[in-house]
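Discussion board: Methods & Data

I've been asked by a reviewer to show the raw model output for two of the constructs in my manuscript, not just the figures. I'm not sure how much to include, so I'm pasting the format here to get opinions. Each protein appears as its amino acid sequence followed by a line of discrete structure tokens. Is this the kind of thing reviewers expect to see in a supplement, or should I convert it first? Here is construct A:
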Amino acid sequence: MRTLCVFLFVMATTSHAADCATAQSGPNTAALVELYTSEGCDSCPPADRWLSSSFAASPGSKLVVPVAFHVDYWDYLGWKDPYGDARFSDRQRTLARASGARAVYTPQVTVAGRDHSWRGGGTSKVLEAVNAKPAAARIEIAPSSVNARVKAALEKGVRPDDLALLVAVTQNGLSTAVKAGENRGATLRHDFVVRELQSQRFGSAGSIDARFDFTPRPDWKADHMNIVAFVQNVRTGEVLQALAAPACR
């Protein structure tokens, strides 16, 4: 690898047409799988392929919710990632600080807010351990195209301190012919790519009922997209519950 991808601090891969059906989380905790990646990093394509192949049947699943956050801090190497966003880089840094890490890197995978080595197997056991936990929150998604009304409620005894509801719109089946940088000449394919992200903090009532509206971009295709919602502790990174629902026309 020409540049070490470390930076110090100083659901289906095919299209799907969906009715506007409401999705509800289950009684156990779904595992939020986050990939932090970049088209400017030549060690990232294997992780992109891993995410796509491992969770191809995930949209609508109540057990695992995959998302891919493209960061922007490798853009200086010669290729600007079209899906990269400084907000996603900041999110990765915030989660790293919460876990006590001294650096962020790509590709990085977290499961339920905790760092996970995606190489060498063992993912299924980690997912099973998360799924075995009773959910500390309930989520309901009522999609309307790429927008959604989302309800979230904390279970009895769960304090709302530092908790937030995050809602993202993700896209599958993306492809890029890279013309510069470390992946020059490669055609990269991506799924579960986060195109937009919004959040709302929990109040003392421990519940949220809100509409999340996203402004579509020219390359958005509703039949390739999902609405993802998850409850997360913004201080520790712990994910209490997650849910995905196909966007609808």
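Construct B, same format:
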Amino acid sequence: MGMDKSYKFSRQSFAVILSRLQKQKLITRQSGKWSITSFGKKIIGESKFRQNSELPPEDGKARLFIFDIPERDRKKRLWLRLELISYGYKLLQKSAWVGYRPLPKDFLRDLEDFNLRSHIHIFSIHHKGTLKEENS
């Protein structure tokens, strides 16, 4: 029995995320329903989503993942966001994410291969301060 690690987006945060995905032509809205575009499916197909069984187990330690990737590398930024989501990391602010599992070693190697390490900071959080978990 562990702590609930779910995160609830505010309605405004969720709307901003949907708007960004729509501007990037990854999703579309028709007749009030959101759906993924063929371009979005292509991007997801190219992402290296890992199965949950391949992920390091959650250990209850909060990790803060912060990045500042230039606009010219927006495809890498998108890839990074999709990877973080697949690891169960949650958005805190525009380029700040929190997760409760170590990141896979192959993901860290991918960051090196994509020349992204200089744009990324990863912290383990021992005292959460104002970072709080919300119960479902």
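Answer (T.O., handling editor elsewhere):
This is acceptable in a supplement if you add a one-line summary per construct. For B, something like: The helical segments are 11-23, 38-46, 74-86, 105-113.
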